[in-house]
Amino acid sequence: MRPAEAKEMYLSQRESEVSQSTIQAHHYRLKHFVRWCDEVAEIDNLNELTGRDLQRYKMWRRDDGDLNNVTMVTQLSTIRVFIKWCENIDAVASETHEKILLPSLGKTEDRRTAMLSDEAAAQLLEYLRQFEFATRTHALIEVLWHTGIRIGAAHSLDVEDYDREEQYLELHHRPETGTRLKNKTEGARYVSLSANVCDALDAYLQYNRDEGGDGKGRSPLFSGRCGRPAKSTLRDSIYRITRPCEYTGECPHDREIDSCEALENNKASTCPSSVSPHAIRRGSITHHLSEDVPEKVVSDRMNVSLDVLEKHYDRRGEREKAEQRRDYLDDL
């Protein structure tokens, strides 16, 4: 079996098992392996794949992508899953996946650290409420920071999912009409909103939302001129507005703002201080925990397990955690 054929068969089978974002991530990671087989190793038949080949690929991929240990573990873990699947259909020799050795990580090396801090979030929201009130970007940032939901969940929202009277959003997994939640039906839930968030949503819906549906009988909450915008479009708007020069008027990196490359179209993410939607989610979760919201409540609200919450999202320092525990224990 040719590597490219095996990859397509693997992705086709996984489509019914995992979210579309996971399929896209696996496609991205596996395309490098297919490229290496075709252009470097000249492997036309996966039956020929050996442990030595996989070690060569590991070294090539690290150099080709200039990857750190965390990214290497992520990419090689996907390769292992793929190779093990290939073994099950007799495309690769048995136990080949066990020959893929993952790099060792330090205790905290696999934790992502980028996040929107409380201070930056306060400055950003103050700017949006004063100068970009009721824009789509303003409403989106208010929702992401207050609820900690994923960008995919925000992208999936319809106008009907917002209840302005009861002040909540209703999240649904709707793969049949083009939107999905990361954890599928288990991610479906009600998320309560604050008065500030509702004010922003109400004004956005009244004055600035682009009318029209998405061609599938639905009315996206965060809409664009052509209906429901791509998640990448929403992501780009977040990178743009989270450049500090946008909401503070200053550059913390001593760059000349007028000539900075991060001001160019589609290059906002090159700003060292701009953040992704996931960094807002991480900051929101940390903010909730710092405000003494119980971990179980945060876990349910943000649709993340307690183990993952502690390992990947909680950015509180150990001293801060100790001080919060003291507040609970002083009166005992």
Automatic annotation (TrEMBL):
Q: Which Pfam families match?
A: Phage_int_SAM_1, Phage_integrase
This protein's source sits in the domain of life called: Archaea
Instruction: Tell me which Gene3D superfamilies the record gives.
Output: 1.10.150.130, Intergrase catalytic core (1.10.443.10)
Spell out the InterPro entries in the cross-references.
Answer: CB, DNA_brk_join_enz, Integrase-like_cat_sf, Integrase_catalytic, Integrase_recombinase_N, Integrase_SAM-like_N, Tyrosine_recombinase_XerCD
Name the UniProt key words of this record, in alphabetical order: DNA integration, DNA recombination, DNA-binding
| The keyword DNA-binding belongs to this UniProt entry's keyword annotation | yes
Which processes are annotated in GO (biological process)? DNA integration; DNA recombination
Q: What is this protein called?
A: Site-specific recombinase XerD
